[in-house]
Amino acid sequence: MTKNKVIAILILSLISLSGCATVYNPATERKEFHFFDTKDEIELGNHLAGEVEHKYSLYHNSRSSLRIDAIGQKLAKVCDRQDMPYEFKVVDSDELNAFTIVGGKVYITRAIIDFCSSDDELAGILAHEIGHNVARHQVKALEAQLGFGLLSSLIFSDGKKQNAVRIVNTVYNLINLGYSRGDEFLADRLAVEYTYKAGYDPKAFIGFFEKLKRKKGELLGYLAFLNSHPPFSQRIEAIRKEIDLLGKEK
């Protein structure tokens, strides 16, 4: 047996053992190869949530928490991924920030809640983060940066401490540095779709960005989740086009 055949057999064996599969992702509208199934992704999210919530203190205000969860759950019911539970929590921070981690866990800061003028604006932000989960942007990035072996060590054997720290640090980098521009535009597109389906006004998402654009100089340094994103003007234009498409589909 040749060396190449041996390698091929080993690869196929690993794929079989890990439960990898090619599935259609309605968010990206193409078939994708995944190392982890939904159960594994949820378990990884549970591992990471404890670390994230230790670093970012939660905001224990029942009114804000109930408000965010109510908006988020309405959006989750209409999103393209119904195979996992979604959680929405408020972080006690003065930064204008919102982020997600794998497994359907979405976080939004107290400051951005105060900054928004309506539930419609908040819905756009939460729907954007749901979009990242639906498209599996973070788990793809983790697989690409860390590899299957390191991630599976945390899921399947509780992982060594150094592996867990490395994974968590990579998640923090994704939170702070963001995703690719293509990923961000896709999450915006999904946000328009999900807010509309959930009964919120997707135009409020434009209002949110226009407000940020007007205050950009004043707020520079507090726009944690926006610093590496595409320019406001490009995002606003793309969102307008998506809303126009919604009108044509009626």
Task: Describe it.
This protein has 12 helices and 5 strands. Helices cover 64% and strands 10% of the residues. It has helices at 3-18, 38-55, 62-76, 110-115, 119-134, 137-146, 148-157, 161-177, 181-197, 203-214, 216-219, 232-249, and strands at residues 21-25, 30-34, 87-91, 98-101, 105-109. Helix 3 packs across helix 5, helix 5 (119-134) crosses helix 10 and helix 6 packs across helix 7. The protein has one domain. It has 250 residues and is mainly alpha-helical. Strands 3-5-4 form a 3-stranded mixed β-sheet. The chain starts with a helix and ends with a helix. Residues 3-19 and 220-224 have low confidence and may be disordered.
| Biggest sheet overview | 3 strands, mixed
Q: What structural class do you assign from the helix and strand content? A: mainly alpha
- Mean pLDDT, to the nearest integer, reads 80
Helical region count?
12
Q: Could you give the distance between the termini?
A: 60 Å
How large, in whole angstroms, is the Cα Rg?
19 Å
| Biggest sheet strand line-up | 3-5-4
Overall geometry comes to globular
